Amino acid sequence: MDRILLAAPRGFCAGVAYAIEIVDLALKVHGAPLYVRHAIVHNEWVVKNFESQGVIFVEDIDDIPAGSTVVYSAHGVSPEVRRQSAERGLKIVDATCPLVTKVHNEAKHYAAKGYFMIYIGHRGHVEAEGTMGEAPDRMVLVETPQDAEELEIPHYEKLAVLSQTTLSVDEVMATMAVLVRRFPHLQKPPKGDICYATTNRQMAIRELAKECDLVLVVGSTTSSNSNRLREVAEQYGAEAHLLMSTDEILPSWRDSYKTVGISSGASTPEVLVQDVIGSLLNGRTGIPVEILETVKEDVAFKPNRDLLELAQAAR
Length: 315
Ligand code: SF4
Fold this sequence. Notes:
Layout: E1 3-8, H1 14-30, E2 34-37, H2 44-51, E3 55-58, E4 69-72, H3 79-87, E5 91-94, H4 98-112, E6 116-120, H5 126-132, E7 139-142, H6 145-150, E8 159-163, H7 169-182, H8 196-211, E9 214-218, H9 224-235, E10 239-243, H10 252-255, E11 259-264, H11 270-281, E12 289-293, H12 305-314
Parallel strand pairs: 1-11, 1-12, 2-3, 2-4, 4-5, 6-7, 6-8, 9-10, 9-11
The structure holds iron/sulfur cluster.
């Protein structure tokens, strides 16, 4: 290995930093046990860290004792989950990423105007379930350009398209092209739904892949955007692997490649990237670690003032 090249931007996006800060604040205000519906972000390290502080992650609202506090994860929830929470008398702290909420609002807007919607997303992904839950009778899911080609729906005068925030930019463009050809009157939200962090990390890894023979993406197999990063690196010519920890590093990765590129998913703490760098170097000095920056990011979301003030008072 002659050098390590780090993608920039990589790692935590504004929505993940926001969700983690909200759980920290909610722990201060409400104490443990604190319930979180679904993994707060798709990273086992983050989840375990919170579990050690008394956070309990549940998939089903029925598993939360009545009257407790529940935090909704960054991926958002459907109105049905909100209804179940109200039925159990739960106190809600909402850590949904504002960029996911934006897509929910588009779904509500189109539903109210009588549109039928096509949602580009991954079946079974918690974000897709939450957004589609805004108008379950007025939305159909497609995953791939092939699905878009084969989609059979009645003729709707009012037809709109939405997407999950963490998909492959290239694949969504391909799926969108099929949909627009088949349904030329399709309405699109003014700005695309793939978020800035997904777009930027994919752009960065494209450039990285062009310069590397091996690209490692540090992230969880449950993380949609991390999986997409690995795929994009592969599409742009590099051998690419997704790994969560140094245990998964193969000895050949240290010796059989000239330039090793590293990126990380939007839910991956930087400490895990630094561990991987350390393990790749394995005590060797003189191997440069360089940064390939494609774009600067300055997006940040602030938790609401009430929660900040309550946390301050609870110190
Ligand atoms: S990946 Fe995008 S939509 Fe998802 S939490 Fe991060 S900023 Fe929000």
